[in-house]
Amino acid sequence: MASTGFPGREFGFGVPEAGGGGLLKRPLSEMERLQLQQQMQQAMFLRSVKQRTLLASSVPPHLSTPPPQDLFLGESSSLTSLNLTAAGPFRRQEAPFSAPAAEIGPSTALRDGLQELERRLLLDEEEEDAVSASGSAVTTAEWSEAMQQLIAAPAPVPALSGANQLSPSPTNSSSSTVSSSASSSPPASLVAAIPSGASLRQMLLDTANAVADGNSDMANRNLSVLKGAANYRGDPEQRLTAMMVAVLFVRLKPPPPAGSFPTVAEVCGSDHLAASQMLYEASPCFKLGLMAANLAILEATKDLPKIHILDFEVGHGGQYVALIHALVDRHRLRPAGRPPSLRITAVADPASPFTNNHPGGTLRTVGDRIEKLGERHGLSVRFDAVHHRAAELDAAALGCEAGEALAVNLAFSLARIPDESVSPTNPRDELLRRLRALGPRVVALVEQEINTNSASFAGRFAAACSHYGALLESLDATSARDSGDRGRIEGWLARRVVNSVAREGADRVERCEVFGKWRARMGMAGFNPVQLRPALVESVKNRLESMRPNLSFSIAEEANRIEFAWKGQILTVASTWH
Known about the structure:
By secondary structure, this protein is α/β, with parallel strands linked by helices. It folds into three domains: 27-134, no CATH class; 152-254, no CATH class; 272-577, Vaccinia Virus protein VP39 (Rossmann fold, 3-Layer(aba) Sandwich), CATH 3.40.50. The protein is 45% helix and 10% strand. It has 19 helices and eight strands. It has helices spanning 7-10, 28-48, 108-134, 140-151, 188-191, 197-213, 216-229, 236-252, 261-268, 272-282, 284-301, 318-333, 362-376, 395-398, 427-437, 457-476, 484-502, 515-524, 534-547, and strands at residues 306-311, 341-348, 381-387, 405-411, 442-448, 553-558, 561-566, 569-577. It has an eight-stranded mixed β-sheet. Helix 4 (140-151) runs parallel beside helix 8, helix 6 packs antiparallel against helix 7 and helix 11 (284-301) runs antiparallel to helix 19. The longest helix has 27 residues, at 108-134.
């Protein structure tokens, strides 16, 4: 009998029984075992023959046929989702054999085994492809691992016992195939209970309130369902759920020692600067906020020969690349006069976990790049870095000189400076008072519009759901979800959410406030609002129009500020003061 490609016939299925004319049958468990073994062999064969260096001419034409849909039991989990089609000469590999769908009746155990195999292969492939495509060592697979580490092995909730006990999530940080919290399925009895949309958001809020109220029974029941709805590679609501589930699990753990390094490292790690710069480029709400700050500085210092900018979060210096180009363009329009000299002083608090003050470290590298850019464009640019606490800042410490037009850039930096709730010395207000004493021509303030400072845990949780839910949705409109940069941005955002919502005291280093509170602080420090010129606002609006990312982005002008929103949810606010 010729082979049919279906393993059952070669192993005796369909052969007449010796004594009764019926079919020789094997136990169902044995059939399932053989089928599972056969399918795993197919999948591992495909994995082993994935071509990475072969030329196109070495691929036989018949291997370009897509594999059958039923290999992984249905369209939703088919082999085509493994993304075996590589760039360039590589082609999809055909399975050496397949079973007709009509002849296979897999049980739940068989299906789960194959789906787990597919997931493991998929994570490995996507991680490798994303690294090679983006050049970034951080991918969505690593975000999965980070989220898994955040929620792994939560401390037992005292009020729970037996069946109500929160179960730890297994973690294998040494493996690239580690699954996220979203990958673990809830019990079968809870699958039908998984909510979506508004009901999912409401369940998150209810769970946070239960945690805040000490209602551990309700928190445990809800978390069992929410883990099944979380998916760090899903739609914005599923990705938000993955973030907020991590917040809830971290909150349920025993509080770490105050000021301990591991909690601070959540948001102050080596990828902080890179990920924040990627966010500023990917999101118009952040990018245009920095543009508004640049325009305010240019407006306040125009026609003046010497410009000195104090900056408290230089980052990778991307904001100053744009500022230097703007200065060069302005001089080109009026070539009669001499171009102004630009001096940038990066101020770093040596006690801040965000400060990299090693000799030859990040600040010096950024400064060299900025100075060389100015030199290429014929502009005199000088970059200095000083390391002082807020209480030590004065004109002498900052190197301020007579005849300079002084400007202060507080773009996404003030929220990371501790206030009265963290330290009795209140470095945040102390800094503002000392800046006011310098008499700057302008202070540009740009911050996220969210209260993760003075609000309670439940209040911060609700604010984060609204803010980061809108931000994740807006990122879908501006960048590819499967890019390496997106994985890096959202992994960093996830760590920020955990820190700003789940942590307390000195361990909470992300302390944003809404504009009303910034306005009160600026007023108490002696600053007055600066009315934005219509031309400045129009320039920002025109830039958004030229970008055309999505009609759901909007800009609103209110007195001395510009609000940047996604579908009505304000994400960032830029304001000017003197």
